[in-house]
Amino acid sequence: MTDQPQAPLQIAVIPVTPFEQNCSIVWETKTKQAAIVDPGGDVPRLQAAIRELGVKPVAIWLTHGHLDHAGGATELADALSIPIIGPHEGDKFLLDSLPEQGLRFDIHGMKAVTPTRWLKDGDTVSLGDLTFEVAHVPGHSPGHVTFFQKDLRFLLAGDTVFAGSVGRTDLPYGDHAALISGIKAKLLPLGDDVQFLPGHGPASTLGEERRNNPFLQD
Questions:
Q1: In this structure, is residue 135 part of a structural domain?
Q2: What's the pTM value of the predicted model, to 2 decimals?
Q3: Number of Cβ within a 10 Å radius of residue 172
Q4: How many domains does the chain divide into?
Q5: Sign, Cα dihedral of 36, 42, 47, 49
Q6: What angle, rounded to 10 degrees, do the helices at 73-80 and 43-53 form?
Q7: Domain encompassing residue 41
Q8: Does some domain include residue 36?
Q9: I want to staple 198 with a disulfide (CB 3.0 to 4.6 A). Which of 5, 99, 162, 180 is the partner?
Q10: Phi and psi dihedrals of 29, rounded to 5?
């Protein structure tokens, strides 16, 4: 018997913060280059997971600026000496206010985030030979982005679409119509076969959500 080839992309999900946010460590199998996506907090746990996995962190990717997604980014970036990439500049006000966001939930010590690189619609980010396409999908927050690996049919969706739901839009800057429009115009056309990891809860496929998600039915 021969060993089955490893998938080109590996993913470990570490729920962080009291909000059980899906922080993910994604890495290219060949080079072990890794991105830490949405490190909202619990930084020592994330560092321990990185060591245990034996991967080589090269960047932090942020989908948006809410505390459960970005609250640990500065601390982790400083500890690992890696850049913070994303989100779209529309979320600058959220990243600037992370210490205040944290205190509202009795979470102390969160640091504001200044990304090394802002992202915009159509940009790309890479891990080794794997390229991810960036889409700007506002509504949950003004600067929310997603990351799509076309060849592997995999999407890091953040808080845009969930299994059976969508991101909340009841905050002052939320825009439900913009979120639904963005999901339908930019995410669903990627293909029914695309598997996605949301910011909270289980993974799903875009086809499952197109057919059955109550928020996406016309």
A1: yes
A2: 0.96
A3: 4
A4: 1
A5: negative
A6: 40
A7: 9-216
A8: yes
A9: 162
A10: -60, -40
Q: What is the mean pLDDT of residues 142-153?
A: 98
Structure tokens at 47: 């560092």
Residue 116's pLDDT band (cuts 50, 70, 90): very high
Strands (E), the chain: 9-16, 21-28, 33-37, 56-61, 84-85, 124-127, 130-136, 145-149, 154-158, 161-162, 165-166, 195-198, 204-205
Q: What is the pLDDT of residues 166-184, one digit of tens each?
A: 999 999 999 999 999 999 9
Q: Domain holding 92: CATH number?
A: 3.60.15.10
Coil, helix or strand for 37? strand
CB 6 within 8 A of CB 29: yes
Is residue 3 in some structural domain? no
Distance CA 210, CA 218 (A): 10
Here the tokens at position 181 are 């429009």
In angstroms, what CA-CA distances link 78 with 74, 75, 100, 166?
A: 6, 5, 20, 32
Please indicate, yes or no, if residue 4 is contained in any of the structural domains.
Answer: no
